[in-house]
Structure formats: C-alpha cells, structure tokens
C-alpha cells in the first residue's frame, strides 16, 4: 500500500499501493513527484506480508504510530481502496478523507472465483504470477495504457511468492465494508469508464453506498489511471485535498528555503527603495549607504538581488530532484530490458537444447534401423 503524506507533522495523505494484487510502492511515483513539488508531503508504502484484514489493520496502525502520524487522507485503488475503507471503518478517528478508485465493498465474488484459495500458501510462485497477470486485460491498448501495463507487469516480476500469496489472501478473505462515520462529503470516487479488472457491478455498489461523495470519472485509463492518466489523477487529488481543507505549503517544496517565502517581498522593497542611492554612489561602491548600514552591492551587469539568487538556488535544487527521478526511471527501464534479455536468453537456450535433443534422438533412431 502506498500513501501521500501532506504538510503538517501529524497529517498525511496515504496512497494505498494495492492494484488488485499487483504492483509495488513504485507505481505511484508520478503522484509523488507532482504533489511533492507543489508543497505536499508524500509517502508511498507497500502492503505488509499479512494474511487477513485484521492483521493488516493492526500492522498499518503500528506503522502510522512509528512515523508519528495521527490523521491521514487515504487514496486507494482496487484492493487498496477496499482496505482504505476497512481502516476508516475500524479506525474512524485517524482517517480524515478518502479517495477511492476502481474499488469494491466486499470480497465474496473474488473468493467464489478462486476455489483454490485455501491452498494459496503452498502454490508455486510462477502459478501465482500467472494468475495475477490473467487479471490484466490483454490486447491492443493506447500507447499510454500499454506503457502502464508494461510497468506493472515488470513490478509483478519483482514480487516474491509470499508477497503474492499474502495479497491474494487479502483479496479472498471474507469481509465487507460496514457503515463509515466519515461523511460522504469527505469522499471522492475516481473511476475509469473504459475496461477495468473490477466488475462494473461492484463499482456501482461503491457509488450507491456513498451517494453524497464527489464523483470524478476518467474517460479512459484502464486499471492503472495513476500511470496512464497522471495529470488528471493529480488534478483530482489536489481538488480533493483543497475541498477537505488541506492546502499545500511552499516551505515543504524540496530545495526551497523555509524562510525564503516570507522575506522575498521585503527584499524587493528594500532594493527598490535603494535604487536612487545606488545610482548616486556608483563611483564609490564600497562606501556604506549610511553610517550604520552595510556597504552597497556593486551595480553592474552581473549583479543580482537576493531574491533572484534564492530562486536560482531553488530552481537548481528542483532540477537536481528531477534529475534524480529521471535517473531512477532510467534504472527501472534498464531493469526491464535486463529481464527481457534474460527471458530471451532462456528461450534461446531451451530451443537449442530441444533441437540438440531432437538431433540426438534422430541419430539413435537411424542407428537402431541400421
């Protein structure tokens, strides 16, 4: 599961990282990059390795206590949205608002479709991955949706057998969401109108349960709109946060000095007021403006005010942050290329071995005939 932590030491927004059994905390990197640069504190968290919903609620609460976060805003997709509702039901004082996307209210339909659920703990890893990947729609996609599917499939390959078994257990563990103390006005439902792994009937049940919730529908986006439609998702998240009273803080933007926001306007006034004096004193730039004031800054083509210097440093720091993110993306793409190369090498080796075996058996058959 993943979550975005907003400004304020005790208030957070959490993105649950559970896209119906698949994905890791990396799949929300576009929301983290966008919202953190706008002044929100953002954190993304993986679902712990637990085997029922009560264990998950207790583990998640212990995590919040460990990072000293009391009030949270949850954004959950698919299984993550279901878990977010359960946490809001059992820990109502901690959840301040919800953003639900392509989610459901009960797990009975998933349990009925998976009769081998009691044996999921003993199922081999490759069978679990195959079952998870069958839930992702196969076929031609728009380019941005195809890229999101490729990214999530690569994430599934990194999950261990126990991680997959744990998530499938949470999907089929019998449970349903009861009444919430949270007002419908503090809930936003953000669904996609095209194909989705969650049946439309289950998504309609969520809409009927919260009639007063704000509805934000995306024309397309597939199962992973946070990857395929990040700009729209980020916009709806910001609108939701503003509606529930959470504002961004510029001092939370990476690279911007915390004391810079309040001093920029005063610096401008001081420098504008001292322009005439500076023109009179150009012949003696080292002399003070008055008896107790500091020496004037030399006036020339390379001189600049303190505000521009601070902004330059801030932009430089932000550029470095972007560079780091781009490097991380390049690393992830490189890992995907390595996985593809390994798969191709494995296929080639199998083909060569089978061809050699066929040749060997053919020679044996010829020798036997002779």
UniProtKB/TrEMBL annotation:
Q: Please name one Pfam family that this protein belongs to.
A: Abhydrolase_1
Q: Which gene encodes it?
A: LOC105164211
Give the matching InterPro entries: AB_hydrolase_1, AB_hydrolase_fold, Maspardin
Where do the segments described as Disordered lie? 248-309
- UniProt keyword annotations, A-Z: Cytoplasm
Organism, as annotated: Sesamum indicum
- Location of the AB hydrolase-1 domain: 49-136
Q: What is its main location?
A: cytoplasm
Which Gene3D superfamilies does the record cross-reference, listed alphabetically? Answer: alpha/beta hydrolase
Q: What is the name of the protein in this document?
A: Maspardin
Task: Name the domain of life this protein comes from.
Answer: Eukaryota
